[in-house]
Here is the input.
Amino acid sequence: MQWFRHQLNKGYMCYGLPMKKVSDHNANEHGKGFFRIVAGRSAAAAPYINNLFNNPINFFELLDEIAIGIAVLSMDRKIVHLNQTLKALAGFSQKEVFGVACAHVLRSDVCLQNCPVLSLNEQSGPKCIEGNLINMDRQLIPIRITSTPLKGIDGEMVGFMETIEDISLIRKLDETTRHAYKFDNIIGRSPEMEKIFQILPSLAQSDSSVLITGETGTGKDMVAETIHHSSNRAKGPFVKINCGALPETLLESELFGHRKGSFTGAIENKPGRFQQAHNGTLYLTEIGDLPISLQVKLLTFLDDKEIFPLGSVKGSIADVRIIAATHRNLEQRVNDNRFRKDLLFRLNVIRLHLPPLRDRQGDVQLLLDHFLNTLSTQLGKKKLSLSRKALKILFNYHYPGNVRELRNIVEYAVNICGERQIKPKHLPSYLLDAGQFDVAAIAQEPSSRFALKSEGTDVSVPKAQQNWPEIEKRMIMEALIKVSGRKNRAAAALGWGRSTLWRKMKKYGIN
Amino acid sequence: MTSTKILIPLHENDVAPRFDLATEVLLVTGMGKTGAVDKRMVVLPRASADQLCHLAITEGVKTVICSGIEDDYYQYLIWKRIEVIDSVIGSSDTALKRFVEGTLKPGEIL
Here is the structure.
């Protein structure tokens, strides 16, 4: 390509190139013999950043020092500058591509299918999209592009800046960690968790609302964060708000923001969490506790993607992905008229149910090892192990508080234990009471917490979706039936003392 | 220059930045000193590098002029004795003109 240059005053260079060359869809094309004049600074007189240090800093040299690819684009999406990292990544030199349309240089699927720059304006924040590019070596490289508008001192947009990160290493790491019973920070190898690990990547790539359900302590917050970090919005904010933690009036202001003077004490405009989460994810935890009046406002947002701060008649658009979570049964709350059916339908685009720990076979051991390692390091203890008896107690406990409770138990034990091995005496005392029956039972059959062996016959309890009291009650009933109601033999079969059996029968109302 | 058949994946009037993402293709037949004899535009139902390679082979294309192309497809086309002039940035008309003149090289910005 033949360039024409002319030196102007104050270090500016005037560049000219023949028209009817690399055409841009927005550019006017002229007849043969015309020239487009592109004005910019010559390399010798590069733009400077003043007033930061005593001496001005060369802007282009500063960009070259950054280890992320950076492209500075003009308003018509033509290359103004590429830093060294991007030159190395894409394989082009600055001289070659100055003034060439960005899509031809980056050669990314993002530029061709969903150019982020097109949707930017003066009010826009950075926009982050993942995709890939093909470099001059014909390699397909996964990348993350973050585009942001460049504004002049007067606030008017003068161009764009794109940062391009090579994420091939992260992708490779993702693949390896996926096989190591782990997805981001979530650990598990049970079939139930495997299913979740399989759907999480595709779920993260979608922009649909997600409703996460599950008992307390099953990791709803962690899954929400994982979805955000694995999504195209990863560079955007992840804003969490607990719908059950604030009173209704305060929650409305927190969620949607307010205008100055909208109520007593509103001394200035305050952006809500929706605005804070623009281009990111808003995580609404305990959505089941959201007051009905705010459910309507949330519904409006899910429909129109527009929010109206308190005291404002003018709405503003927020590009936010909603992830909601609750431990409550939302269908039941709909029946009780405490949750809007239409909101449930809108949130329930993708539902993810996290299994309780008692249904995650094999995960207790995995989580115990993980927490023991991490907590020993965190608390500055030597590497600890669990004694066989302590292990049996932990295996047989039913964990109503799920993974959070397991973590707390391990933390307690690591703190209390002054020896190299955690023994039953280092475990919380409530665990020993609850585990009396189970320790004896599992001593005979360690592989299953739900099976008892008595006189060669199995007294099995189906691993249904029941809670622990129901399972225990059923075990007592079945043991009593097997031994024709003789309590001492039933107690022996269950591995309990007679008094324990009597106490539990009284508790469950078994006569 | 002898008669040949050229395939250029298009994005508007330019050589498409990506071979695998092009949904329009320009097929030019019978290049000679007088220029193209027949120009045919093919619109593909969806972007696919495999489909483009298949089209190039079934149409008896001798040369592919494109921009970004993955190495697998580049090597495949070379193996099928199709010349590939890649990393060409510019309008398809200019690329064709330069090809006829015999001055088009890989990596050229027109």
Observations:
- Chain A touches chain B at residues 1, 20-23, 25, 96-97, 100, 103-107, 109, 111-113, 133-140 (CB under 8 Å).
- The longest strand of chain A covers residues 140-151.
- Residues 363-378 of chain A form the longest helix (16 residues).
- The radius of gyration of chain A is 31 Å.
